[in-house]
Structures are given as C-alpha cells and as structure tokens.
Amino acid sequence: MRELIDVFLNYLSVERGLSNNTIISYGSDLVKFSSYLEKNNINSFAKAGRENISEFMFAQKEKGLSPASIARNLVAIKTFYRFLVRERILKNDPTAVLETPKLWKRLPEVMTLAEVEALINSPNLRSSQGVRDKAILEMLYASGMRISELANLKIQDINLDVGFIKCLGKGKKERIVPVGRKAKEALSRYLNITRPKLSKGQAQSEVFLSRIGKKLSRQSLWKIIKNYARIAKIKKQIKPHTFRHSFATHLLEGGADLRSVQEMLGHSDISTTQIYTHIHKDRLKNIHKKFHPRG
C-alpha cells in the first residue's frame, strides 16, 4: 500500500505540479488511512469499501480532529482512489458516493490600517536586520504574496524600475503583481545597502537572506512576523497569511474590482476571492449600525 501512495505522490509532484506542502499533507493523510486499514486486517486498498472509509472518518472525529482536517483527509482519499481507477490499478472507486462535508467558511483575521502601520514601522532601521525586516513586512502587505512565495522570491523576479514582481504560486503558476512606492523604497534600501552585507560574497539568488547569508526559511519569516506583532502590541494573532488577507480586504475597501484582486492573489477560482467581499460587507454593516440614527 505504501508503494501505491509513493506512486500517487510522485504523480502529484511531476504531473500535477502541486506544492511540496500539499504533497506532504496528502502523503500524511494517506499513510494514516493505510495504517488504519492494516490495524483492521485490510492489507489492500482494493479490499477497502465505503464502510471502511466512513469508519476511518468517524475514528478521526473521535480523536478530536477538526472538521477541516477530516474534510482534507477525505479529499486526499478521494483523489487517491480516482487516480488508482484512472491508472487501472483498481476497477471501482468506493469514494464515488461519499460526499465531502460542507464546511462553514470562517472569515479570515484582518489587520486594521493602524495595525498595519504599527507593524511595518516596528523594525529598527539603524540595524541591518531591521532594514531587511522592514522590506519583508512592506512586501508582504504591498503584494499579498504567500509566505512561501516570499521565501522563494529571487533577484531576477524583481523589476523596481517598472514596479512589478513575479511570483511563482501554487501549481507553479506565475503571476505578475505590482508593488507600491513604500515597498519599492524599503526593498531598494535593503537590496542596495543590507543584502550585500548579508550575502558575504556568496552567489545567492534568493532576495531575503539570514544573518549567515542563507535563504530565509518559511519558519524564520514566521518568527520575524510574530516578533514584530509583539513589539507593535497587536493583540490579535498575526500570521503570515494575515498580510495576504489584509492586502485583499483593503484593496476591495478602497474600490478595487474583484477580478483584479483575484489576479493579484493568484486565485484560479473567483469564489475563493469572494470571501473578502463578505469581510467588506460586514464592515459596512458595522459602520451603518454605529453611525445611522436608526442603526
């Protein structure tokens, strides 16, 4: 069973071009499923029926897994079985009649403009690290990039003269995103003054480097953001994706059209982008309630 999982994961990587994080998640979910089958004396995916898959889901629920995690487990299993049938490894797909549970979409946490300003202005620009971190925060808010996209951003992906950056997003899809004046200034200062000191003469293609001249990892970028959120005394939990949510929401509040925001975020489906319109509507309702005489 593990061999079939490996074949499937290779397919996701080579033919589907999915990100490493997605492939790791699928692999983890499928190994967990295969272990469950083995414990119940089922040594082949062909011998697992709809009842076994449903029982596995209930077992995950009893372990305390969130509805979102359980739904992700089922998506991984359904995708896996479709692959096995398409490759003619199996004749029947026991997941064909199983529905993925509908989940309530939770509205993402968004920073206020004041919180964004406080966070971005937190780094100490008298230090090389502060100059770098200021550029990181400015770029996240200016572009709506995912943290992995920022970590993998390369020198050749930046055109400060025109004011655009090239992002390599999910599924290795490229998109061009404009960046504003403040982000350009912060990035230019970092590239011209600080980055040469950090690179220590090494030929590194990534934009953002650590103190020892290596590429900054996603985990390091996460720690940087958490540290400045603490310095800025922001009480809500700030994650890298909070910048992306704030970027989209503030654009829509400023009058940007949904299609343009979709393109800048790199969403393949506009329904994914539409969640930000709900945030915008909620804000308008709160303003109406607060200021209207009969609110």
TrEMBL record:
Pfam families: Phage_int_SAM_1, Phage_integrase. GO terms for biological process: cell division; chromosome segregation; DNA transposition. The keyword Cell cycle applies. Keywords: Cell cycle, Cell division, Chromosome partition, Cytoplasm, DNA integration, DNA recombination, DNA-binding. Signal peptide: none annotated. One of its GO terms (cellular component) is cytoplasm. Residues 1-85 form the Core-binding (CB) domain. It is found in: Cytoplasm. The active site is at R146, K170, H241, R244, H267, Y276 (o-(3'-phospho-dna)-tyrosine intermediate). InterPro entries: CB (IPR044068), DNA_brk_join_enz (IPR011010), Integrase-like_cat_sf (IPR013762), Integrase_catalytic (IPR002104), Integrase_recombinase_N (IPR010998), Integrase_SAM-like_N (IPR004107), Recomb_XerD (IPR011932), Tyrosine_recombinase_XerC/XerD (IPR023009). It comes from the Bacteria. Residues 106-289 form the Tyr recombinase domain. Transmembrane segments: none annotated. GO terms for molecular function: DNA binding; tyrosine-based site-specific recombinase activity. Forms a cyclic heterotetrameric complex composed of two molecules of XerC and two molecules of XerD. PANTHER family: PHAGE INTEGRASE-RELATED, TYROSINE RECOMBINASE XERC. Site-specific tyrosine recombinase, which acts by catalyzing the cutting and rejoining of the recombining DNA molecules. The XerC-XerD complex is essential to convert dimers of the bacterial chromosome into monomers to permit their segregation at cell division. It also contributes to the segregational stability of plasmids. Belongs to the 'phage' integrase family. XerD subfamily. NCBIfam families: PRK00283.1 (NF001399), recomb_XerA_Arch (NF040815), recomb_XerD (TIGR02225). This is Tyrosine recombinase XerD. It comes from Candidatus Ghiorseimicrobium undicola.
